[in-house]
Amino acid sequence: MKKNQNLILLTNYFPFWKGEEYLESEIKYLSETFEKVIIIPVMINESMKQTRSVPSNVDILKVSTDHSLKGKIRMLTYKSSGEIKNEIRKMPISFSKKLFEYYFQMRSLAIWGIVKEKFEKEIDLSINTSIYIYSYWFYLTSMVGIELKKYLVDKGYEVKKIISRAHGYDVNENANFLNYLPSREYLLRNMDFVYPVSTYGENMLIQRVPNFKEKVAVRKLGVKSISDMFIQHDNKKIYLVSCSTIRPLKKIEKIIDTLSLCEKRGIDYKWVHLGSGKTSYEKKIRKYAKKKLVEGKYEFYGYVKNKDVMSIYKDKEVSLFINVSESEGTPVSIMEAFSMSLPVIASDVGGTSDIVKDGYNGFLVDFQITHRDLLEKIIDLNNFSEEKYNEMSRNAFLTWQTMLNEEKNYQKFCQELLEGDI
After folding, report:
1. Helix extents (H) in 266-370
2. Where are the beta strands (DSSP E) in 212-303?
3. CATH number of the domain bearing residue 280
4. Does 349 map to a domain?
5. In which domain of life is the source organism classified (predicted)?
6. Does residue 383 contact residue 360 with C-beta atoms inside 8 Å?
7. Is 94 exposed, middle or buried (0-12, 13-18, 19+ CB in 10 A)?
8. Per-residue pLDDT tens for 291-332?
9. Which of 39, 362, 371, 384 is most buried when burial is the number of CB atoms within 10 A of its CB?
10. Domain total in the chain
11. Using CA atoms, how far apart are residues 249 and 246, in angstroms rounded to an integer?
């Protein structure tokens, strides 16, 4: 740990509410690297409770922002609107994209105004402190981070570096309703480095803003396994596990449709899903499962804490992890499955192909695969000989061990962040 080296980490919610589970691991390494870490979650409100513990040298600036529809509309009246409108008017983009730019920039500045007021009242930094700013997303948190840097520099502080990670929604323009994400060039120009968690994300950014390609490089996330050796599973029964939020792009209904074919063909199976979603949509999915599947052959666990996920994989006799999402960064859920020696069937989206190698540690499938074809992939794995299935399981574990190990990846990331160019 270096003295007088402080890190300001901008998150959406962490350590409040849920989401950003990967930070539950990374925060330990950040706290061991910097004398002090200040977390600023930019999307929380007063009703949200802290749900994750943090190390003793981590302070949290609890701001309160209103991201309801009414709150977002209020943000659009932020006082700098005239200057922003003039800049956006000059952009060579469609009217709908200009509206998106305006919404994004106004919302970002309104959040920064709330953060700034709270920061001035509650954060006391020594003028001799070197500051590093780390945005966890290449979106709102990055815009707020850039404004924070300007503010600190004006106050006479030394800001050594400002960086951002980039994951899925914040870099994958193809998943956006306009096939467009705002302020890409502005954000890259004002960042020292941007680190997508996948090659797919890296390519997206470089294609969009080639002038700053030297600032973009992949840095993978990592997970911690509860086992330091290969775990032997049994593929004689179809026992699937999936882990994600329950929302439309995760295509959980496709898993249900696939398993309903098992019912029709008399194929025995079991399925467990870990994760929750917005109440109305989760109810819809649960109702759909009840209609299509036999009670007792499936189970929705609801929200499961990150540290408990892998214990479930170990305690249950699962044989396969499945992810048929239509959009991803590099899925941490797959990393966790690999760390527990589970082969994976996953849709070839985002950075999934960085870690899932078809026929080696699982199967890559088109995200538009039909539920009939998906069932054939599951049956193929189920028909593997014990020796062939164990080889794929070992390869899954080896992938985690060599590419996705939390300790290796985060220690290296933190030291490079502190000591020089990553």
Report:
1. 279-292, 306-315, 332-339, 352-355
2. 238-243, 269-274, 298-302
3. 3.40.50.2000
4. yes
5. Bacteria
6. no
7. exposed
8. 999 999 999 999 888 778 888 888 778 999 999 999 888 999
9. 362
10. 2
11. 9
In a domain, 98, yes or no: yes
Alpha carbon distances (Å) from 410 to 166, 261, 317, 335: 16, 42, 31, 14
Share of the chain above pLDDT 90, in %: 80
* Residues 305 and 274 sit within 8 Å (Cβ to Cβ): no
Establish if 230 belongs to a structural domain. Answer: no
Residue 421 buriedness (CB in 10 A; 0-12 / 13-18 / 19+)? exposed
Cβ(316)–Cβ(241) below 8 Å: yes
Residue type, 321: F
How far CA 30 is from CA of 168, 193, 216, 414, in Å, comes to 22, 17, 21, 6
Q: What residues make up the domain containing 349? A: 238-403
State in Å, rounded, how far the first CA of the chain is from the last one. 18
What is the per-residue pLDDT across 364-388, written as a single tens digit (0 to 9) for each?
999 999 999 999 999 999 999 999 9
d(CA 164, CA 126): 24
Q: Based on the fold, state whether residues 211 and 101 are members of the same structural domain.
A: yes
By 3-state DSSP, what share of the chain in percent is helix, strand and coil, each rounded to 5?
A: 45, 20, 35
Q: Residue 422 pLDDT more than 50?
A: no
Region for residue 300 given its phi and psi (left: phi exceeds 0; alpha: psi -120 to 50; beta: otherwise): beta
In terms of domains, do 98 and 247 share one?
Answer: no
Is the separation of the CB atoms in 174 and 208 below 8 Å? no
- CA of 336: how far to CAs of 244, 274, 378, 420, in Å? 12, 13, 20, 30
Outline where DSSP puts E strands in 126-279: 130-135, 158-166, 193-196, 238-243, 269-274
As a residue count, the chain comes to: 422
164 and 147 fall within a common domain: yes
Q: In what order do the strands lie in the sheet with 130-135?
A: 58-60, 34-41, 2-11, 130-135, 158-166, 193-196
345: confidence class by pLDDT, cuts 50, 70, 90: very high
Tens-place pLDDT, residues 215-250: 999 999 999 988 888 888 888 889 999 999 999 999
Q: What is the distance between the alpha carbons of residues 347 and 352, in angstroms, rounded to a whole number?
A: 8
pLDDT category, 42, cuts 50, 70, 90? very high
Instruction: Read off the pLDDT of residues 50-96 as tens digits, 9 standing for 90 and up.
Output: 999 999 999 999 999 988 888 888 887 776 655 677 788 889 999 99
